[in-house]
Each structure stands twice: as C-alpha cells, then as structure tokens.
Amino acid sequence: MTKKLFGTDGVRGTANKEPMTAETALKVGTAAGLLSSNGCNRHRVVIGKDTRLSGYMVEPALTAGFVSAGVDAILVGPMPTPAVAMLTRSLRADLGAMISASHNPYQDNGIKLFGPDGYKISVEMEYAIEERLSGDMTNELANPIDFGRAVRLDDAQGRYIEFVKQTFPKGQTLDGLKVVIDCANGAAYKVAPTVLQELGAEVVSIGVTPDGININKGCGSTDTVLMTAQVVASKADVGIALDGDADRVLIADENGELVDGDQIMGAIAACWKSDGRLRGDCVVATVMSNFALEVYLKGEGVELRRTQVGDRYVAEKMRADGCNLGGEQSGHIVLTDYSTTGDGLVAALQVLAMVRASGRPVSEVCRPFEPMPQLLKNVSLNGGEPLQDDRVKQVIAEAEKRLSNSGRVLIRKSGTEPLVRVMAEGGDKTLIATVVDKIVTEIKRAVKN
Description:
By secondary structure, the chain is of the alpha/beta class. It has helices spanning 22-36, 55-68, 81-90, 123-133, 156-166, 191-198, 225-233, 261-275, 291-299, 311-321, 344-358, 362-365, 390-402, 429-448; strands at residues 11-14, 43-49, 71-78, 95-99, 108-114, 150-152, 178-182, 202-206, 238-242, 249-252, 258-259, 282-286, 303-307, 325-327, 333-335, 374-380, 407-413, 419-426. The two termini are 29 Å apart.
C-alpha cells in the first residue's frame, strides 16, 4: 500500500487546496481520533499550531474531527512543535497534533501527529489513518452524549518555558551574555525570548511580530541574513535562528558567521563524549550531513550512523540504536535526554552551556571541523519522474564516477515539497559546481518534456 496523504513529516500542502483543506483536516482528526479511542477511558489530544493565518481554519476543523470521535481536545495555541510533543507526554494524552508547515512560507500548512510517547506516529498508524479516510466513518462517530470537549490550556507556555529551562545545567546562568534570537515570526515568538531572559541573557529579539503571513519571511533559520547582521550590529556574543515551528536551529558566532547543524552536532558530541554523556559513542545524522563531520567524529572515537532525510528517521534510528544525539545539517537537532523530536531552543541552550563552561567564544566552541565544500541546488517539479529519464541517469552516473575518489553525489526527491534536490561534495569546488549544474540542466530538460 502506498501512502497518498502523509509525507516524510506529516500532511502538508497549500492551504485551502488538497490535502490542506478544512474538510480533510476534519477527516484526519476523526480518523486519528477513532483509532485512539478504543476502550472505556476518555481520550485526549493536545493540539498546537504556529502563527500562519490558515491555522484559524485548520485548528477548528481538526478539533471538530477529534471531538466527533469522542476525543477531548486540549488547545494550546501558538507553540513550538517540540512543546506539543512534550505536553502530549506530560498530560498523558493519547495523541498530539501540531498544525504547521515548519520552514515553508505562510501559504502552506500541515499536520504533524505524535503518539502518547511524544514521538511522531508510526508509518503503520499513518497507513491506518489513510485507510479510514478512504471509507465511511459515519457509523463509528460518537453518540451525542459521548462527544469530546475542547478546552484551552492557559498555562501551556509556562509549562514549556520551565521545561526548557530545566535542560540548562544547574548552577549556570547566561548572565553577561548578549544573545540575538530570531523566532521567524513563528511559534516560539513568545517562549524563546522569555527562556533566554529568565536564564539571565541580554536578549535582542527579532522575528517576534507575527501577522499571519510573515512567518519565515526574510527571517528565521531559512533566511539568516537579518539575524547575522543583527549580531554584528549589536555586538552580540551569539545569534540563534529558529524556524516557523522552532524544531530546527542555526547559530551565528560573535562575528556573524553561520554555524550549521553538522557543526552543532560535532561540538555537542565531543563535549558529551568527554563528559561521558554520549550514549553508545554514536551520533545519528542523514545522508545530507557533510563527510567532514564523519571524519571529525571518528577522530573523537564517535561513530556517525546515517539515515534517509527526515528527522523522524533520525529519531527512529536513535531509538533503535540507543543513541541520544542526532540531527540534520539543516538544524534539526534531536537530544533524546530531553526531547523526542527536534527542539531548536533546547539545542541552542546546549550550545550556550558549552560556551559558558569553556569560557571561549562561539567561533571556537562551535567550529570543531572544516566542512568539505558542498553544493546543493533544487529543481522544481510539475509531475513526472525525471529521475527515471535515461539521460538524467547517465549524467548522474558520470558525476558519481568523476567524484568517486574525492567526494560524492546525492540526488533525492523532497518529501515535503515538489522538488528534486541535487547535492555534491568534494575537495574540488569547480568540479562540484560543474557536475551539479550538469545534473540540474538534465533534470530541468526532463521535467519540461
């Protein structure tokens, strides 16, 4: 069976177009609710969202679906994705639902579902939901007396703020540290500055005035120009850029130079290895992570284990292998000692804790290795399977042969957007640019045909 609705990170699409319509959100809530409402106990779902305008459409539709299945809905409003995962566990709910399209523009929205353990629901559960959607659920709906109830959790933000603060080492503060925080006009626009202020930092906040359509627009982890410039202008010690739902983070050092997820993972891994906190002496990353990270970790006595792209696959591999550190180059950092999914704010605090403990600047703490030159380009799709085109296959094979002794090529379809991602890395920048451009040209030709 092939999933049609769920991608690598839940359901996602343009708001008011399938699959992100009110009707489909209603059905998803109903199907997920029915699957979680077996037994005689009352069942509950935690529902959060980011700041997209379309959240006002999706939230009540999704809530109605759960209520019609006899599931109580706990509404927490604009909150980071990891906060919804945390609250799902803390409140002993059966499910968590986050309404967000993460780093995508405001036109998109999505639904991510978490199980009672705070981890994203299994592929099997996604199949089961889609199977319910394809049938008639009318006869399974709750009787009027058994409808669920929808309530607002007024102290949700406070609960998450205190949870995040508890992940910072006891006895340490951020006193004397000047921090620029870019919340991408997204879900963390209130909680992130508050956490940093309450830990003692002098905070310069940007991306904290959401209006429903400016989420991720010219700000956040997908557009860091504003954040890095602000670090330099305000003479800050560090910059932190979150994305729209705050499950990913990028760091800027005191010079305004960007630090990606690979560097963050490398720095945390070495620190935790030294402290005896790195379980299994392993780190889990995806096929997109720079080869230099693998080399660096090996020198530290740490094994890098790779998965396909997607933080859910990273988390699944971490659980299977007993690792407590993993993530993606894009800034999803999963620290299972604290969270079940990527948490940008928690990861940022780990970086700040290392900076305070070492007494060294971010530029020294967060640059443990020199990345191998890497180039990534995206090609838009409008249907079809360009990667099955014979000429495209031939060009890819030629590129792999040319880089076989000095780098690698990775071609993959995005699981969240209609794109083909073309990536190459190696020691020769000119060669990398040449092979990527040639592959991109052939894919574009195949798409047009």
